Amino acid sequence: MISHPSRHCTVELQALPSRIGQVRRILSAQLRYWHLDPLIDRAALGVTELLTNVHQHAQPDKTCTVEIELLLDRLMVSVHDHDPRLPVVEDMEDVAPLATCGRGLAMVAAVSESWGVRPDGESGKVVWFTLPTPASARAAAARPPRRKAVEKPARRFAEVEHRVDLRRAPEHAPARSAVAG
Question: DSSP letter at 34?
Answer without folding.
Answer: T
